[in-house]
Amino acid sequence: MSTAFFWIFIALLALGTPVVFALLIGPGLSLVLDDQRQFFATLLSRFYNGVDSFPLLAVPFFILAGELMNSGGITRSIVNFSQSLIGHVRGGLAQVNILSSMLFAGISGSAVADASAIGKMLVPAMEQNGYKRSFAAAVTAAAAVIGPIIPPSGIMVLYGFVMNVSIGALFAAGVVPGVMIGLGLMLTTRVLATRNDLPVASRRATWRERGQAFRKAALALVMPVILLGGMLSGFFTATEAAAVAAGYAIIVAPFVLRTVGFAEMRRIFVATAMQSGVILMLVGAAVTFAWLVTVSGMAEGIASAMLGITENTSLLLLIVNLLLLLIGMFLDAGPAILILGPVLAPIFVEMGVHPVHFAIVMCVNLTLGLATPPMGLVLFVTSSVAGVRVESIVRAMLPFLAVEIGVLFLITYFPPLTLALPRWLGLIQ
After folding, report:
1. Bridge partners for 90 per DSSP
2. Domain residues of the chain, as ranges?
3. Mean pLDDT, residues 38-66 taken together
4. What φ, ψ does residue 200 adopt, rounded to 5°?
5. Tens of pLDDT along 182-219?
6. Torsion angle of alpha carbons 380, 386, 388, 389, nearest 10°?
7. Which H or E run contains 381?
8. Spatial CA neighbour of 56 closest among 271, 332, 338, 421
9. Contact by Cβ (8 Å): 79, 122
């Protein structure tokens, strides 16, 4: 079987075809050109089997939980709690933006949701406080990429499903890198605040005021505690955890906080169904594509080519990181993981890299692509929210992006940063 499907896929992407259709048309057209129509039934079977999976039920449940909590006024309570903690320091609102993203990541698991929710609230507030609008948007975009790294994470669910890696272990392994990125961004902001004399957001809150702010945010903050606590203790699986999170959000948003009406609930369920449908179609198409990559011998060819360059694991990790950073500039994280995971992961696992370690490196790397030009989705969302050109956001974001890439290489070459927590919890050997 030839590799024509791959070049058809690349050509379709270059023409602007949506990824899911490029993934389906490429293999189908290739079989016609190779006169191997007998494999059409296999393609359809692979597509169906890729969608018909219990672990993938976690995706719509996590989306539903995030949509409900975000629409329930949770974002404001998290921002207020963050401001009570660090709003008094120089560059306080920028620090609040980053801390809010770290806390919000434990609820939404989505960089786009983070950028939209936090950006709508804090970008105008930062501008009124004396920040340049481009800088405010840059902080929002840089912090938003933490969303899929700190669990729960949709892309980790996809990776775990495709590569048969424990989703609980992936979630645990993502905690330290996510916190490292957040702290790195906060340290960078502190340096920029001192250098550029950025404003102080508010007076120092009293402990009583912090306690009040915490109580208002507690209903939101307890959700990731229940979710991760249940998963990491082995009380329930990732899919069950997602269902618990969605059930919790359904109770809290409309009945406890009373901030989501039944009309809004209908909109949220429809939006969740549409997003889930798109993701599941993408998964089915990517599983089909990955099967062709394997049976065509392309995966072995790529492995041989990489090992032909060098057999040094450290150098190969550098090469694959640079490759993924480049791919992340043009391809969304989800499709990139579904397509490249089955190709790259076996190479490094065979060389002795732990499957969970490589998974986190790949997920973090491609997540950074959400905030890099020219196709970074978070950049476009932030640009729309802030009303600032993407080019201006990118220029202001360069110091933050440098920090995030630095953290990426730290976790690449120091595996204990990702593996210590899941090992301590007994999730991996």
Report:
1. 200
2. 36-424
3. 80
4. -85, 135
5. 999 999 999 998 888 877 777 788 888 889 888 888 88
6. 0
7. helix 377-386
8. 338
9. yes
